[in-house]
From TrEMBL:
<dbReference type="InterPro" id="IPR029033">
    <property type="entry name" value="His_PPase_superfam"/>
</dbReference>
<dbReference type="GO" id="GO:0005737">
    <property type="term" value="C:cytoplasm"/>
</dbReference>
<dbReference type="InterPro" id="IPR013078">
    <property type="entry name" value="His_Pase_superF_clade-1"/>
</dbReference>
<feature type="region of interest" description="Disordered">
    <location>
        <begin position="206"/>
        <end position="231"/>
    </location>
</feature>
<dbReference type="GO" id="GO:0016791">
    <property type="term" value="F:phosphatase activity"/>
</dbReference>
<dbReference type="InterPro" id="IPR050275">
    <property type="entry name" value="PGM_Phosphatase"/>
</dbReference>
<dbReference type="InterPro" id="IPR022492">
    <property type="entry name" value="Phosphomutase_MSMEG4193_put"/>
</dbReference>
<protein>
    <submittedName>
        <fullName>Phosphoglycerate mutase</fullName>
    </submittedName>
</protein>
<dbReference type="Pfam" id="PF00300">
    <property type="entry name" value="His_Phos_1"/>
</dbReference>
């Protein structure tokens, strides 16, 4: 099973420099809407069987054009929601950098629990569990190597990539997931393979139409693009 981890397009909260979290009504800005429409050319020619989205508006808006082009009804998955940042929700990032917890989030995220919210270790656990559950369901439904899209949020994607790499969660800040980026993980019975990270180019196709590589061979090749900043 192969999942395309899609971060939502640029939002009004991204441009305002606030931590949106689970705030209601945070929509895409003009750039974000362009990015959402551009997904049709970037990944719309891939054999995508399912589109699953976080319930938050900015994710639902991001997948709408793609789902319509593919004639697929997007499935809403609560466990792909943004981190519950609790009392940090809606605050300016320029203020949060002065909080003692900020340094913990950057250097020791596995120990970070947001006041009135959830911990990043909890986020990783729920994200990995729900992606693997959708993998299982889609495998039973379609059989073979199924390609599907999961539209979610930056920290959720970073935690999934860290798990797939076998990295400790404390290293997940080394991973970038920019707005409208696509990261690709292929799950096999023995281990996951990370094929792409933070892909923001015009078209994503390398290695995604071929059959999965047997476990007896070397890791499948893929262009990993790691860079840029997360806002």
């Amino acid at each position: 099973m192969t999942v395309l981890l899609l971060r939502h397009g640029r939002s009004t909260s991204n441009t305002a420099g606030t931590l949106a979290g689970r705030s209601e009504g945070v929509d895409l800005d003009d750039k974000g809407r362009e990015q959402a429409a551009g997904l049709i050319d970037r990944i719309g020619d891939l054999p995508i069987r399912a589109v699953v989205s976080s319930p938050l508006l900015r994710c639902r808006r991001t997948v709408e054009p793609l789902a319509q082009a593919l004639c697929i009804e997007a499935v809403i998955e609560d466990q792909l929601a943004e981190v519950d940042y609790g009392e940090w929700t809606g605050r300016k990032l320029s203020e949060l950098v002065n909080e003692p917890l900020w340094r913990v989030v950057q250097a020791h995220p596995s120990a970070a629990v947001f006041p009135g919210g959830e911990g990043l270790a909890q986020v990783q656990a729920r994200a990995v569990a729900v992606v693997r559950e959708h993998d299982r369901r889609l495998s039973e439904q379609y059989g073979g190597d199924v390609l599907w899209v999961a539209c979610t949020h930056g920290d959720v994607i970073k935690s999934l990539i860290a798990d797939a790499y076998g990295m400790h969660l404390d290293s997940f800040q080394r991973v970038n997931a920019d707005p409208a980026s696509v990261s690709v993980i292929r799950y096999t019975p023995l281990r996951p393979f990370v094929l792409h990270v933070n892909h923001t180019g015009s078209r994503l196709s390398a290695g995604l139409r071929a059959a999965p590589a047997p476990e007896t061979k070397e890791q499948p090749s893929g262009d990993a693009v790691v860079g840029g900043s997360t806002d």
